[in-house]
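User: Can you write out an input/output pair for a complex, sequences first and structure second?

Assistant: Here is one pair. Inputs:
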Amino acid sequence: MNCLEARIVKDGIVKEGNVLKVDSFLNHQMDPELFNEMGREWKRRFEGKTITKILTIEASGIGIACIAAQHFGVPVVFAKKAKSINLDGEMYTAEVESFTHKNKNQVIVSKKFLNENDHLLLIDDFLANGCALQGLIQIAKAAGATVEGIGIAVEKGFQAGGQIIRNLGYQLESLAIVEEMNWETGEIKFREQ
Amino acid sequence: MNCLEARIVKDGIVKEGNVLKVDSFLNHQMDPELFNEMGREWKRRFEGKTITKILTIEASGIGIACIAAQHFGVPVVFAKKAKSINLDGEMYTAEVESFTHKNKNQVIVSKKFLNENDHLLLIDDFLANGCALQGLIQIAKAAGATVEGIGIAVEKGFQAGGQIIRNLGYQLESLAIVEEMNWETGEIKFREQ
């Protein structure tokens, strides 16, 4: 059991409807020491790959991505969820449906910060149906950048996102893959990695 | 000139209407090495203060706060801008007007993550009229927590926010205070610190 799985067992809360709350250490309150361990593990798993930039999506991907980026020595770009008057110039856009919020968002990245010379590591906190990740992949493609790998904190292994992304040929490294969880007993089963 | 001021001179772009774009290193593309220097400087400026937690606001405060938190050895909590179905239970709320987006947001923090034993460092990327910061202060007060200090990356010294916050008695440490900027020449004048 790695550090993230152990932390999920300790502090994660299983709720009815296959909801896993990890907001005490991952996506509302955040533990930078844990993020540092996660960054070290992604660095190990993507050993040998050339990464020039990390691409993530606001809001909860940003902290994880910034600390992981310290292990790769690269900048981070985050996709923004709404149009801002400060984001002038041309931008890459993709439409993303949120599982959590049950709505659709336009996500945007300024064309200034991604191009065909970039070798990207995509980072996000959660992977369920994969919509956010598909949006990031779409933006990477539009920029002509290469997606070298994808690092996810928690994957819901019983939803389709992970398999779809792996079937597309991407190296997807989820640090914790939840196979099953039981909200009545609180039990969580992880996929062996 | 500190590392942030130097970076603003090098990569910041002054636009008409007193807009300073720092999106190539601070709030769209992000430079974790710069954030690390900023964290070190805040640690120095708040030397001797007991900090138990960093409180910030999504989205562009998160990366800076997470890396700064490594220097203080504390967790980060970020205030969220919209109600989420994953944020059940009781929460602290404040209303915040955005200078950039010209709209009002409810910002919320779960009551689980702030209480009267917390000694907070508030961190954000920008301080202009101070509305976001006032929201965070309001939330800290509602929790009964102590605001030990406030760390801002870029303060617009010609707007009222900084003076209002300092007049309230808070130790506000802005790493770059822009006194004047000229969009025609691109010149930026910083306050001597």
